[in-house]
Design brief:
By secondary structure, the chain is α/β, with parallel strands linked by helices. It has 17 helices and 15 strands. The chain has a five-stranded mixed beta sheet. A three-stranded antiparallel beta sheet has the order 12-7-13. A three-stranded mixed beta sheet has the order 9-10-15. A hairpin with a 2-residue loop joins strand 4 (about 130) and strand 5. The chain is globular and about 75 Å long. Pfam families: SBP_bac_1. It comes from Actinoplanes flavus. This is Extracellular solute-binding protein.
């Protein structure tokens, strides 16, 4: 799923003394066990119905408790109160350290989660684990690629770029040929996940953090790699080659449906969003790999992704772990058929990801192109990245300070410097030792 922009939520080391994650000592259950699940996946009801129809020992009771931060706020309240939390909860990958820090996530490694480790790419599994401790089961991801309007490229005789230098050259050609009517793309400054995906591809490591050592964190938001990304996009925006309309707004989707934007730097879940919101451009879009900083390289980034975790309020954590592992597991082809065909999830489960049904799937919206032949190799080439345990604050800093730069109150790189200092101060105030 797309990363949801969120307001800051305070998380302190003092909160680390929450509930434990030891197996429940209660007697074995008799009859069917009901497992409460919170999730906002599209078309999830059908997935729940499919699970319940194929299991007699366990039944899922599903609640949509809100999207992103709305759900997280309710979850934090329930966890702190010691009651009211679900057994299994959907968490975006970047939010796992926040909830693991307060020790409210069950170690799924105790219930066989490491047995399915081989079903996932190494980078995806590292997002949910530390050593043999497993805090969640990955479900979907957002490997990035470049969607482009084939009709606009043909109209203005543009070449599909393979490097960021070529991308800028084509953007300049587009501006001149269209009389400034079309932008090469939109750089949505309201989405920290999008920016992080571009940093990721450039080799930036904004944070160094291990859940196993929660008191220490490295902060390097304004690294040379991150500044390279921002310098590039400051130039693109300043020259009128890229727009800065907020992502996920009506104006943004109207731009994708018209000739305003020639490309969309999207994630693996992007095909579903663009098809649902820019249907008037059906058949005009194609997908190509994300441009590279170095010709011939294969550096990739991820934007978004989510998982299933088990909370310490689960009465039967072993059964809840079974639900987390199986509901979108490698063997659950029926659930994935719903997830792929109707919800447009990009699977992290390798057997599904590399199946002919997924890689060979054609999309009418993209003129019959097998777009996953682009997204799957991108997924497999993504490197490791650490998230911090206060990611909502970090994203808020990125978007707020970049907003100041777009208003020309500061430079883009200075915005990163400000974010760096504010995040370091915040981390120290929350009790972390900042490296």
């Amino acid at each position: 799923m797309a990363a949801i922009a969120a307001t800051a939520t305070a998380v302190t080391l003092a909160a680390c003394g929450g509930g434990d994650d030891k197996p429940d000592a209660a007697a074995k259950p008799t009859g069917t066990v009901t497992v409460k699940v919170w999730a906002w996946y599209p078309e999830f009801k059908a997935v729940v119905d499919q699970f319940n129809a194929t299991h007699t020992d366990v039944k899922i009771e599903w609640t949509n408790a809100g999207t992103g931060q709305d759900q997280y706020t309710k979850l934090q309240t329930a966890l702190k109160a010691g009651k009211g939390a679900p057994d299994v909860v959907m968490l975006e990958l970047q939010e796992i350290p926040t909830f693991a820090l307060t020790k409210h996530l069950v170690d799924l490694g105790k219930y066989g989660a490491n047995d399915v480790k081989g079903d996932y790419a190494g980078w995806a599994w590292s997002q949910v684990s530390s050593g043999d401790q497993v805090y969640a089961i990955p479900v979907d991801a957002g490997p990035m690629a470049m969607m482009y309007r084939e009709d606009i490229f043909k109209k203005y005789d543009l070449t599909v770029p393979t490097t960021w230098d070529e991308y800028k050259v084509q953007a300049e050609k587009l501006k001149a040929a269209s009389g400034g009517k079309s932008f090469m793309t939109d750089f949505g400054a309201n989405d920290g996940g999008f920016m992080t995906g571009l940093f990721w591809q450039a080799g930036a490591k904004p944070y160094t953090y291990d859940i196993a050592n929660p008191g220490s964190i490295g902060v390097n938001v304004n690294s040379a790699e991150a500044k390279k990304v921002f310098e590039y996009w400051e130039g693109m925006v300043g020259a009128g080659l890229a727009d800065t309309t907020a992502f996920h707004t009506t104006d943004f989707y109207n731009g994708l449906g018209s000739e305003k934007y020639a490309t969309y730097l999207a994630a693996g879940w992007g095909p579903g969003y663009i098809q649902a919101n820019a249907g008037g451009a059906a058949g005009k879009w194609k997908v190509a790999p994300l441009p590279q900083w170095t010709a011939g390289a294969n550096a990739q980034g991820d934007w978004g992704g989510s998982s299933f975790a088990v909370t310490d309020q689960a009465r039967y954590p072993d059964i809840a772990a079974k639900v987390a592992m199986e509901i979108f597991g490698a063997k659950n082809s029926e659930a994935w058929k719903i997830g792929i065909d109707k919800a447009f999830l990009f699977p992290t489960v390798t057997p599904v990801l590399e199946s002919d049904a997924f890689t060979g799937k054609t999309y009418d919206f993209f003129g019959g192109q097998k777009v996953n032949e682009v997204f799957v190799p991108a997924y497999n080439a993504i490197g490791d990245l650490d998230w911090s345990p206060f990611n909502s604050y970090n994203f808020n800093q990125l978007t707020t300070n970049l907003g100041q730069a777009i208003e020309k109150k500061t430079s883009w790189t200075a915005a990163l410097d400000t974010a760096q200092e504010n995040i370091k101060t915040y981390a120290t105030q929350q009790g972390f030792k900042v490296q």
